[in-house]
Amino acid sequence: MKNNFLTNLRWVSTVSRRFARVDRKGRSAVTSALATLGICFGVMTLTVVMSVMNGFQMSFIDAILEVSSYHLRAIDVPAHEEAALIAACESDKHIRSCIPFYEAQALMTGAKGGAVAVNVRAAEEDIYSKDEGFRRELKMLSGDFDFSEPDCIVLGSSLARTLGVRVGSEVNLLVMSGGSDVDLFSSDRIFTVTGIFTTGYSEINNSYAFTGTEAAEKYFGKYSKKIWGIKLNKFDDDLRSVTSLKKSLGWNNPSDPQIISWRNFNRTFFGALRIEKNMLLLLVALIFVVVAINIYNGMRRLVFERRTEIAVLSALGAEKNGIKSIFIMRGFLMGSAGALAGVFLGIIISLNTDVVFNLAAKIMYGVQYFVTAITNRENLQYVQVNSSYNLYASIPARIFPGEVTAITLFGIFSPLFASWAASKNVLKMTVSEVLHNE
């Protein structure tokens, strides 16, 4: 059986290559070359677009998960079970860290007067040194992440700009939520700004402030809830970790403390990002549909042009499925060549997006300068490099192996399916009819 399969495969491959050599100068050769180039550019474009989109979206998602929502949150944990939670997190190899914090909403006023709604988070100062992900996503623009002095606070860059404050300035938490023992309105909650940070997500820059746990005990009230933020090695391992922690801690009843996944936070935002990515994927994937249609038409023409050879092969004893395999093999080779070349070029471009966008900016600048110099030299002083390209160049493309593999397989199987559909016309006429017409 194995020898028969190899023999048939060798025969199909030989005849397919023979047909390809004969068709090098015909219309079929042009169709095959264009189809291969179409698959190549389709795979390349889709790989680059998805990599840039991944980098664009993951800059938001990483900032949200590492700074704001955490991967998991444990809430309503009694004081006598906190040690067990810490021990369970330390023993789980999938968990990176477990850090407590407090949260409160407030209206903050600064030098410009107006009040801004903020989310004030109180945490230990060593979070910036212990949590690598937090430190990577939260970059200090000025000052330090320092709560060593009483009543210190670190603000987001957009929030500080809105309030008109900088390092050393004072802000007031005029209205604050918290425990039942917290005064809703107060003019005595004065904080000194010790640092200003920025992240990859503008909403955090606009509305987040960090302070120390001593300030939380002083201003949030003794009944404010402590939240445990849990970081995982892989953010998509959340469901398994929730089940594992609940099992090890025995939290199986509705009255037990809750462990909430990041999927429950910013659900609408994450859903919008997913829809955006899927729609972009669908639009770019239409390239393969167009290529597959061209391959189908080209293969039908090839089948018609080779009807004499097909009839001779059939008369010599070749089976119908074997003759079909000749054309399917050709579609497979076209798809493989185009897809492999496309994924190679796509990965190269994705790894060097900064070079590509900067080069595109220079080319566009050169074209615009040349056209302006010919048409109206007085306006040459207004020709400048488009700054939007610098923004695109700063987006770090992220390549996901699973997506690249799926794109490559789609690039291979779309011409393969088109070739299979076109080969169904093989021997629609009988051998005697073909030879009689010839």
Could you explain how this protein is built, in words?
The protein is of the alpha+beta class and 438 residues long. 58% of the residues lie in helices and 16% in strands. The protein has 16 helices and ten strands. The mean pLDDT is 80.
Number-wise, the strands total: 10
The spatial strand order of the largest sheet comes to 2-3-8-5-7-6
Order of helices and strands: HHEHEEHHEEHEEHEHEHEHHHHHHH
Number of helical regions: 16
Main sheet record: 6 strands, mixed, barrel
Regions with little confidence, pLDDT below 50 for 5+ residues = none
How widely separated are the two ends? 37 Å
Q: Share of helix among residues? A: 55-70%
DSSP strand content: 15-25%
Mean pLDDT: 80
Overall radius of gyration: 32 Å
By helix and strand content, what is the structural category?
alpha+beta
What would you call the quaternary organization? single chain
- Shape verdict: elongated
Would you summarize the structure shown here?
The chain has 438 residues and is α+β, with helices and mostly antiparallel strands. The protein is built from 16 helices and ten strands. The mean pLDDT is 80.
Keywords:
six-stranded mixed beta barrel, 58% helix, 438 residues
Question: What order do the helices and strands come in, and which of them pair?
Answer:
Blueprint: H1 2-22, H2 27-69, E1 72-75, H3 82-91, E2 95-109, E3 115-123, H4 127-130, H5 132-137, E4 139-143, E5 152-156, H6 157-163, E6 170-176, E7 190-198, H7 202-207, E8 208-211, H8 213-219, E9 227-232, H9 238-249, E10 258-261, H10 267-305, H11 307-315, H12 320-351, H13 353-375, H14 388-393, H15 401-422, H16 431-437
Parallel strand pairs: 3-8, 5-7
Antiparallel strand pairs: 1-9, 1-10, 2-3, 2-6, 2-9, 4-7, 5-8, 6-7
